[in-house]
Amino acid sequence: MKKAVGFDQKIQLHQLDFIANEIHRISSRDALYQLVDERLMADIGGAKSRVNARTILFKIWFLVSDEHIELRDRALDMFQRATTEEKLVFHWGMSLLAYPFFKDTAEQLGYLFHLQDEVTSEQIGRKMKGLYGERRRVEVSVNAVLSSLRSWGVLEMGKRNTHTIAAKIDILSAEIKKWLVQVLLIVTDKAVIELNHIAGEPCVFPFKLSVLESELLGNELEITRQGVGRLMVGLK
DNA sequence: GGTGATTTCCCGTATGTGCG
DNA sequence: CGCACATACGGGAAATCACC
Hints:
By secondary structure, this protein is mainly alpha-helical.
């Protein structure tokens, strides 16, 4: 069976901000559909493509699977008083949770950026086709993710389709670090992760994520020691 | 369960844009 | 202009939902 792709349209930051803001006020799905569709009219002409984009937005923020609802609600709560950069962290995390394709693309980008400063769309396209098969859809969707990331200010495009990381975003708030680490554990499917490996996780490459043990204390995460000075973080 | 409607996902193609 | 690539469009299949 072919792996689902899903994320096949460019999604802009203000569209994500819009839905994250409106979810608070509007609880009815139909009303929110209506509202988002109206908002999308400014960006996308065709009704069908608007529906496609709406599908993606809803999957990220609204139609969240049960096991992620709690994280979603916490994100929404913090979202209200977050800075622009912090809001991006939430969009990023929710996208990772909603779309394995997004997560895999981010991860591959992260790997490539560990090795080099510039990544071409062709290069990442090849990697993703390796994971998802030789399908045109994969090509289109990789471009959709890349151009979304450009519009989010995560990537910049240089000459000849090379992409570079725009300035990395430093995450300062301990609450948000904790949230992202939780997301990280879920999407990477790891039981535990070593504390000082967190910053190097490929799928969070746009962020500077340095965490101290003290910042992760609380009800959600569990910290254990392994050997000398190795701190492991896992979900409780 | 069946079945019709809606949602989600995928595809081929048209159009636009930048570049040699 | 011709080429490559990005983006949007609409058809349609597959999956899921809602209701009987």
